[in-house]
Amino acid sequence: MSRFSLQGRTALVTGGARGCGLAFARGLAEAGANVAIFDVIPPEAEFEAIATECGVRTAYYKVDVSSEESLDAGFGAFQTDFDNALDICVPCAGINRHQPFLEFTYADHAALLGVNVLGVHMTAQRAARQMIANGTQKGSIVLVASMASHIAVRSQLCSAYCGSKGAVRAMCPAIAKELAQYNIRVNSISPGYVRTEMTAAFPHLVEEWKRDAMNGRLAEPEDIMGACVFLASDASSYMTGSDIVVDGGVTKW
Ligand SMILES: NC(=O)c1ccc[n+]([C@@H]2O[C@H](COP(=O)([O-])OP(=O)(O)OC[C@H]3O[C@@H](n4cnc5c(N)ncnc54)[C@H](O)[C@@H]3O)[C@@H](O)[C@H]2O)c1
Q1: Mind listing the pLDDT tens digit for each residue in 3-16?
Q2: Domains in the chain with CATH codes
Q3: Whether residue 146 lies in the annotated active site
Q4: 251 and 150 in contact (C-beta within 8 Å)?
Q5: Nearby residues of 223 by Cβ (< 8 Å), 6 or more positions away
Q6: Keyword Cell membrane on this protein (predicted)?
Q7: Max CA-CA distance within the chain?
């Protein structure tokens, strides 16, 4: 299992205060990485326990990934605090908007793109700059896309969200190509229906989502944690520019 170990590495997860991002932060810490999170809200209590339970260093920075100034301030503080030691970045912060295509407003779509597309791209860019500056040979960026980049989600009205996640998946190989020369790998994860605050807004759809999955259930955030640890670690050293779908088979039948 040594190739899965992240001992001595430093990771940054955006949107790590709860849900999938928090699970990714925990998974990376369980594998041995020091983990910082960027989020607009304070982390859930579970985050505080990670440092002692996993014997790693953790930190929370209040950062809005859709703001260039906020991102730069966060990356600056993180770089100082963690001695310029970034190896792993997981741009996970994301939002959804449930609105009919014909009624979608320009402002709502722009706000969504600011987080889901610009926020991911600019987070990955600033992370890559720090990795190049510190010379890590273990650089790994794991973009969080979605099953919604592969299919029209039958039960939801989320055209802008689907488009934004398609952008994340499409930018992945292009960024990977440019960063390969620095030994930084870039991959994405496409989760299916995961039980988080994002999906809690749709309690009436849960039974339909269960039927959509071959395994008849929603994912818990811990169900997708392993894909992130794998992509962050040397166990995936020959993977770059790829997407891993973790969806209980929703997109495969
Ligand atoms: N839950 C699902 O079914 C599902 C499926 C596929 C993909 N995803 C993706 O996984 C990621 C995490 O989603 P989740 O389900 O855990 O949702 P969530 O709402 O529980 O978590 C999202 C986190 O991102 C943070 N965030 C939002 N806007 C931000 C901003 N501007 N700057 C910094 N942080 C911000 C939120 O505060 C929150 O902590 C998202 O990118 C989402 O699109 C979720």
Answers
A1: 999 999 999 999 99
A2: 2-244 (3.40.50.720)
A3: yes
A4: yes
A5: 194, 246
A6: no
A7: 51
With a CB cutoff of 8 Å and minimum separation 6, the contacts of 225 are: 23, 24, 26, 27
User: CB atoms < 10 A from the CB of 216, how many?
Assistant: 10
Candidates 20, 10, 2; CA nearest to 226 is 20
> Which atom from ligand 1 is nearest to the alpha carbon of 195?
1
CB-ligand 1 contact for 17 (6 Å cutoff) = yes
Instruction: Tell me which residue has tokens 């999938």.
Output: 20
Q: What type of residue is 96?
A: N
Q: Is the pTM of this model over 0.90?
A: yes
Going from the Cα of 148 to the center of ligand 1, the distance in angstroms, rounded, reads 14
Q: Taking each helix axis from N to C terminus, what angle separates 45-54 and 19-30, rounded to the nearest 10 degrees?
A: 10
Which atom of ligand 1 is the closest one to the Cα of 19? 16
* Residue 16, ligand 1, Cβ within 6 A: no
Q: How far is CA 251 from the centre of its chain?
A: 20
Question: Taking Cα atoms as reference points, which of 55, 81, 70 lies closest to residue 14?
Answer: 70
CA of 174 to the centre of ligand 1 (A): 23
Q: Which of 5, 20, 147 has its CA nearest to residue 88? A: 5
Best residue among 13, 22, 39 to mutate for probing ligand 1's pocket (most ligand atoms within 8 Å of CB) is: 39
Whether pLDDT at 89 is above 90: yes
Ligand 1: atom nearest CA of 67 is 31
